[in-house]
Predict the structure.
Amino acid sequence: MKAVVFHGIGDVRLDEVAQPNIEKPTDAIVRITAAAICGTDLHFVRGTLGPMKPGTILGHEGIGIVEEVGSAVRNFAPGDRVVIGSTIGCGNCSYCRAGYYANCDNANPNGPENTAFFGGPLESGPFDGLQAEYARIPFANVNMYPLPDDIDDEQAILLSDIFPTSYMAAELAEICPGNSVAVFGCGPVGQFAIASAKLMRAGRIFAIDSIESRLEMAREQGAEIINFNNEDPIETIKGFTNKIGVDRAIDAVGVDANKPDEGPGAKSVKEMAQDFKEEKKEVAPKTNEKGDNWHPGNAPSQVLNWATEALCKAGTLSIIGVYSAASKRFPIGEAMGKNLTVKMGNCHHRKYIPLLVNLVRSGVVDPAEILTQVGPLTSAIEAYKNFDRRMPGWVKVKLEPEALPEVERAA
């Protein structure tokens, strides 16, 4: 079968690989009908998260048709259409039973300290991912969820990771009716964080980014947009909130954050340039930049600093953007001085999928509105490059396995 395979930093290929088999009674084999590329996949290729095992199939967002189930999988049968949660839980340990699937004690063969998820680094298993024609799903009775016929593939693929992750971000932010919320980053997680904040009846939502097409999508959702290359985001937020700041802030960017290239914002962070340079070396000691691709963010803690500054006293910061163990810098002094609450973590996808499926079925949310690119699996390498370049109009890309010819390579 064909699959998108990690070979090294800056080296991702569409390869011919062996088709997976049932290995344990709790496994299922799913024929993938749609997968998607996530910003987390780009972290691996840029070198800001890892280490990755060469040969790992990438991707942790997928839907498909069950082909085969192990003897211990009693709630699914071949032919069932399912969405696959990105993080893997066993369903039996105390954490899974409390809804903390990302903290499962049993799913990760390397031990309970790290989250198990599809297509991730060594510490996560690693488990082969979902950007492939077929995938093995461990603990399938827990990590698959049935899809009703009235949710189409374009809606369903966003229920695998992005929508649950964003909803958890809004939940961690403790958004109450009337609250003002700043969402840093208007990629797919940021867009759904805006949608989730609206569901929680936020009063005002500020969306901060530098890519106009993403800001325009945020504005269409009703957010007040701020381009950090045109204005200082902190001064702007303070100006719009009578110098108080926002009640809640969401970091939907993570370790690949960038500082402003120009404008008042660039001047305000000029004194941090050396710190950012040193920090970039810490989080991405090895890179393999090629032309316009695979460049790590040039200011890894930029959003953490902005979000902390933007918050009012006693506000809440939700961190859902991914950071690695090498990320050591956080403005703890200012956060403490403001009495901020800080919440963060990997998403417990299986906890949120049932709720979000019902929201989509009822017409409250149409996640397909965030999907901007669709293509066959054969276009995956070019899609990776375009998504990595943050090309205008690219927010979320869906891949469809079908009619797969020659191996492609980006190296």
Remarks:
- The longest helix spans residues 349-361.
- The longest strand covers residues 28-37.
- The domain at 165-344 is CATH 3.40.50.720 (Rossmann fold).
- The radius of gyration is 20 Å.
